[in-house]
Amino acid sequence: MKGALVAREHPVLDRLASGLNVAKEGVEELLWPTRCVLCDVPGTLLCEDCRLEIPYIDALHACPYCGQAYGKLACVDCNSFMVAHRQLTPDQRSRTYGDQGLPREGGVSPRGSEYATEAQGACMTDGPQRALDKVVSVFSFVDPCRKLITVYKDKKELRLAEVLAEMLANYIDPSWVVPGETALVAIPARKQALRERGFDHMKEVSVRLSKRCGLPFLDVLHTVDRSDQRGLSASSRQQNMKGSFAFNPQGLLCTAGVIPERVIIVDDVLTTGATLMAAARVLKEAGIEQVFGLTVARLP
């Protein structure tokens, strides 16, 4: 179902929840005074000095396709991927990249099957069926950014969700946003991670980001059981992500069942792009026309 997105609001419940949160935070501050999660200086969750130490990616000089830092016109991987894509015959292109414009394991390419890896798949192709239209990342995934994300996820410092939402809001490309047609979707946590942490870390960030930028948050992606991505090679990540997400139409209830024209997928770290690409394929199969990726960090 297509149409304008109108998020349903509950002002009384929102005010009540806000008041309870303020009271809860006041008690917590009295018992456990806030300190910087990176340098331990008292008074703030993330001090200004530490904010300046985090390696931001200059979006103006990053690759316009995959968001790699210092890509300028396009990073080496994206340029090589697009040049190779253009050199293939239509039949080779289909066998190499598949129906969604993504490299297939062992596909034919000008640089051999080794080139058809999921690392290049994370870069944008120039084909009309590409799954992910563009990716932007805020930081390079090195310390102190690595520590910041670890403290949030593994030490359960939920207050950092608001800090990360603030940072992500500044990196949303204005060209992605069309009023009434754009929504946010979070990469859902694996079931095991959800049990261990007790919260879905990117859903928490996305809900806060939704309030900051005025875009509805849609809980339309569900995970299908798979192994942990950490420690896997690029090709193993691609294989592991196949069929790892499912579209949940119940997540459209807040927009009265309206499917958005555009979606911004929010995730924590872009490693090879396998997760974002798998999610983007599911969303496009559900009828969403354009899918963008927004991540807190990416591997340099």
Q: Could you list some keywords that capture this structure?
A:
300 residues, alpha/beta, Rossmann fold, 2 domains, 4-stranded parallel sheet, two-stranded antiparallel ribbon, 6 strands
Question: What would your notes on this structure say?
Answer:
- 37% of the residues lie in helices and 12% in strands.
- Strands 1-6-5-2 form a four-stranded parallel beta sheet, with helices on both faces. The protein has a two-stranded antiparallel sheet with strand order 3-4.
- α7 (160-169) packs across α9.
- It has eleven helices and six strands.
- The chain has helices at residues 11-31, 48-53, 76-87, 90-97, 118-121, 145-154, 160-169, 191-197, 201-213, 234-241, 274-285, and strands at 134-140, 182-186, 221-223, 245-247, 262-270, 290-298.
- With 300 residues, the protein is α/β, with parallel strands linked by helices.
Write down the CATH topology of the largest domain.
Answer: Rossmann fold
Integer tally of domains: 2
Characterize the biggest β-sheet.
4 strands, parallel
What is the count of DSSP helices, taking H or I runs of 4+ residues? 11
- For the biggest β-sheet, the strand order reads 1-6-5-2
Q: Supply the helix-strand structural class.
A: alpha/beta
Question: What string gives the helices and strands in order?
Answer: HHHHHEHHEHHEHEEHE
Low-pLDDT runs = 95-128
Q: What number is the mean pLDDT?
A: 80
Number of strands: 6
Query: From the 3D coordinates, which CATH architecture of the largest domain would you assign?
Result: 3-Layer(aba) Sandwich
Shape type: globular
- Share in helix: 25-40%
Q: Tell me the Rg in angstroms.
A: 20 Å
CATH class of the largest domain: Alpha Beta
The proportion of strand residues reads 5-15%
First-residue to last-residue Cα separation? 40 Å
